[in-house]
Structure to design on (342 residues):
């Protein structure tokens, strides 16, 4: 048996999941289920769409309308789902590589349109499923199987990227700060427009081992030590933020939503006929 | 607090992958690892905060029941 939350929101015959011991993805997936349950959505009105990668296995475990699509294209499929069925609560589950590399173009344009889709990025800084290749969020000078001498690329800040592209809700949480993560996902679900939560996860098997980050517990401890809440950061001097990263709600605004604008056009021209 | 709550701490042994996250972050050190599985070491110390449940990646530990029972 398992907790009520798990029984209510997961396909029990698919559990336990295949993620490695200490993988943070299970924590993000549970937080998402908790946020959906807290908001009291009708399960039949929720659609979870995912791409390819460790993160994207989540759509197989979650007991909603689900769609496991091609690599990087979760947002494109989700846009179709939302336009065909605007009353659905569409949630995209994606990874750092899936959304910012393979699906990078879809990400910026979905954000630009401000379509009502909630995106949860399971960000573990690496391509886990394929064996630990460096991703667009692997920090500079860290290692991956494809960066045996250290990564020379600069990492994407996915939050800044979608903020600039036009998303109306942008936040970052971590798998250590679970209470906050649930709240951020809830706020993202509430926002009528494109919302993104960059959920910092852990990959002890590839990213952790390649970069000598220690056990899953060590990796969670480093999230605890290096994450600074945006509200606290405003009062801190610059040198205290060296090597740290920000968490919390970065943007929460109202802009015209894409499917609503689309329906307005249809209605306008139907009247004129 | 522990006396007031009717919640019960439950372990799903065959789902536990032994990562040790719940053991490390339990604020009152209730849990331990034994043969790569989580075990309850000292249930009297449990304050039923539920942090183990929130951070278990494998849904192998949870609080059963509610405070109102």
């Amino acid at each position: 048996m398992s907790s009520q939350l798990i029984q209510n929101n997961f396909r029990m015959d698919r559990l336990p999941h295949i993620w490695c011991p200490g993988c943070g993805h299970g924590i993000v997936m549970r937080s998402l289920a908790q946020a959906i349950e807290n908001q009291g959505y009708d399960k039949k009105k929720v659609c979870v769409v995912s791409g390819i990668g460790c993160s994207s296995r989540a759509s197989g475990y979650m007991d909603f309308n689900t769609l496991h699509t091609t690599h990087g294209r979760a947002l494109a499929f989700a846009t179709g789902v939302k336009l065909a069925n605007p009353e659905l609560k569409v949630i995209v589950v994606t990874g750092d590589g899936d959304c910012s590399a393979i699906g990078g173009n879809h990400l910026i344009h979905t954000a630009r349109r401000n379509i009502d889709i909630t995106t949860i990025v399971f960000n573990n800084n690496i391509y886990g499923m394929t064996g630990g290749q460096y991703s667009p969020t692997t920090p500079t000078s860290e290692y991956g199987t494809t960066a045996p001498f250290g990564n020379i690329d600069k990492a994407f800040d996915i939050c800044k990227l979608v903020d600039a592209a036009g998303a109306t809700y942008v936040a970052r949480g971590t798998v250590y700060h679970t209470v906050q993560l649930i709240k951020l996902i809830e706020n993202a679900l509430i926002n009528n427009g494109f919302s993104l939560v960059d959920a910092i996860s852990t990959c002890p098997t590839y990213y952790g081992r390649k970069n000598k980050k220690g056990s899953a517990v060590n990796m969670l401890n480093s999230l605890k030590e290096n994450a600074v809440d945006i509200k606290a950061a405003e009062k801190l001097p610059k040198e205290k933020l060296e090597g740290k990263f920000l968490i919390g709600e970065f943007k929460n605004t109202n802009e015209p939503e894409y499917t609503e604008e689309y329906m307005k056009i249809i209605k306008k021209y139907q009247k004129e006929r | 607090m522990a006396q007031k709550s009717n919640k019960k701490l439950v372990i799903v042994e065959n789902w536990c992958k032994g990562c040790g996250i719940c053991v490390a972050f339990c604020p009152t050190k209730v849990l331990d690892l034994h043969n790569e599985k989580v075990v309850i070491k000292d249930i009297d110390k449990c304050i039923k905060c539920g942090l183990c449940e929130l951070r278990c990646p494998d849904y192998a530990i949870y609080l059963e029941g509610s405070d109102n029972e």
Notes: Residues 140 and 151 of chain A are 5 Å apart (CA to CA). DSSP finds twelve helices and ten strands in chain A.
